[in-house]
Specification:
By secondary structure, this protein is mainly beta. It contains 1 helix and 22 strands. It has one helix at residues 2-33; strands at residues 51-56, 62-66, 69-73, 78-81, 96-101, 107-111, 115-120, 125-126, 130-131, 134-135, 142-145, 151-155, 158-164, 170-175, 190-193, 199-203, 206-210, 216-219, 230-234, 237-241, 245-250, 255-261. Strands 1-2-3-4 form a 4-stranded antiparallel beta sheet, with no helix packed on it. The protein has a 4-stranded antiparallel beta sheet with strand order 5-6-7-8, with no helix packed on it. Strands 11-12-13-14 form a 4-stranded antiparallel beta sheet, with no helix packed on it. The termini are far apart.
Length: 279
Amino acid sequence: MFLRDYKMNKRQNIFIGIFTISLFFSSMLCAQESILFSQISTKDGLPQNTARSIVVDNMGFLWVGTLDGLVRYDGTRFITYKPEPGRPKNITDQRIRSIHEDKDGFLWIKTYDNSFNCYNPKLERFIEFSYEENTVPLLFTNYLETQKGEVWLWGDSGCVKIEKNTEGVPVIAFHSASNSSKLSEDKVNFVFADSLNNVWIGSDLGLNRIDSSGHTDEFYNQENLGVFRKAMQLNSIVYFMSDDVICRYDLKKHLFLEAFKSSERCSLRDIAQLNKDNL
């Protein structure tokens, strides 16, 4: 009698345990399924329904890049930024490609006219840049923010480095078009920052390195190694890919190692990291 009651109680306990676990996982699934979606469109205030980029800034505003303006949304109200003739310090094109926010909260907006615009969220206006007393449009196609907070923009017309001044406002600190900072070639294919804060610039005619002090060096500008397309760091080695070779720079030894050469039938186009030890 005791043994039968014990078995029955054991079965009941097992059943109650399984039922409790089932309820727990069912409640988790129900919680996961209770996600609410809402749609924002021209009916609500968007100037256009094609959204190319969406960013939530560090103040909680939603920024939407459309083909008819840059939009800021606070949950109830829309503000749309478009070019306005005769108004300085304004966005240059209403067709937005992408939006980036740097670590200090400035927004970098790339438009379809292949230029960047920088928005100051504190002053709620766009910044007009100058270099060597001349107004400089940011006619570039690529964006990078380094660990130091520097913003690099580059493309077919060269590159610029933008830093924050003592007042925390972005200013151009380096421009490749300047006579004092010439690169191997005007066209820039990539900008890469390694772990030692060296900035590497690749072009069709070689490599340039700008160290943390601002000194510029040239490499492989006479070897005719093809177009330098990309750079990547794995452990303490930086790899530079061109059409025919992969050059290697050792950050610990501060020198270039023997390059990897591709076969005659192989033309290199890209490089990617497989794991912590292999590319």
